[in-house]
Amino acid sequence: MSNRRQIVDELRGLVSGAGVADGILPPVVFVAVNAGFGLQPAVLAAGAVAAAIVLVRLATGRPLKYALSGVVGTGIAVALTTRSGRAESYFLPGILSGAATTAALLVSIVLRRPLVAYASWATRGWPIEWFWHERVRPAYTAVTWIWVAFFGVRTAVQGYLYAEGSVTALGVVRVATGWPGLLGLLVVTYLVGRSRLESLGGPSIDEFEAQKPPPWSVQPHGF
Question: Among 113, 107, 81, which residue's Cα sits nearest to residue 94?
């Protein structure tokens, strides 16, 4: 199977399970209503949209994982906004979360246990020891640096806009670097990761488990 086909199949599965609207609609509604009607109606509208998404998922029998996390995130954002009386506070939880993610990614690189490897392990169920092989780990380290750049820049831009009180710009950046940005990040992750694995020439999962000596054939699919 070609890299292009593998990427399309994996992204299709991710989007269909996650529900893109869960992360996009509440901030879009918040910014739009705040611009037209003020802070309090915007807070109520964002909360109502997040709750409505959960109800729709319940009615259609779709997974609630992302919708519930969206409700929790929106609830925290609404509480901070109500308490501070500042519209930009709605975006503070996302900024803090981005800073924490960037820090965790950097620490994982320093510890030689790149966080992207754990993400792949949790998703695919491959042996965790395989990820730490000397001909495999560098590929995941390289991709983790890309994640550091993505989350670091996104957090820095949002932090600047938060300090400036630019609510509309915060909403635009939040949506653009949300699902669209993450899907782009996953495509780059796969392409760069596969390229690095192939250049490193490490063992496939089957070869690793069988303790086959080199030369190896490289993991034929996935990252």
Answer: 81
CB atoms within 10 A of CB 180: 12
- Give one word for 8, left, alpha or beta, with left for phi > 0 and alpha for psi -120 to 50: alpha
Q: Rounding to the nearest 10 degrees, give the CA dihedral for residues 7, 13, 17, 22.
A: 30
Residue tagged 């802070």 (tokens):
39
| Residue 110 exposed, middle or buried by CB count within 10 Å (0-12, 13-18, 19+) | exposed
Which of 118, 103, 44, 113 is closest to 79 using CA atoms?
Answer: 44
Q: Rounded distance, CA 165 to CA 15, Å?
A: 32
Tokens of 147: 């994640």
What is the C-alpha separation between 118 and 122, in angstroms, rounded?
A: 6
CB 10 within 8 A of CB 190: yes
Cα atoms in the Cβ-side hemisphere of radius 13 Å centred on 217: 7
- What is the C-alpha separation between 47 and 33, in angstroms, rounded? 12
pLDDT tens readout for residues 120-136? 999 889 999 999 999 99
Q: What is the enclosing helix (H) or strand (E) of 216?
A: none
- What's the pTM? 0.86
* Residues 128-172: tens digit of each pLDDT: 999 999 999 999 999 999 999 999 999 999 999 999 999 999 999
Sign of CA dihedral 59, 63, 64, 67: negative
CB 187 within 8 A of CB 11: yes
Looking at the predicted structure, is the pLDDT value of residue 70 above 80?
no
Token look-up 């699902």 returns 179
